[in-house]
Amino acid sequence: RPSLSDARRRYLLRQRDLGGPEVYLSRAPGSGPAPAPPAAAAPPVPPAASAPAQPAEALPEPARSGAWREGAPPVPGPGIEIVTPAPGLLDAAPDYASLEAVADAVRGCEQCVLCGHRTHAVPGEGPAGARLMCVGEGPGETEDRTGRPFVGRAGDLLTDILAAIDLPREQVFIANVVKCRPPQNRKPLPDEVAACLGYLRAQIRLVRPTVLLALGATAAEGLLGVRQSLGSLRGRVHRFDGIPLIVTYHPAALLRNPNWKKPTWDDVRIARQLLDA
Ligand code: URA
Ligand code: URA
Question: For the chain, is the Cβ count within 10 Å smaller at the N or the C terminus?
Answer without folding.
Answer: N
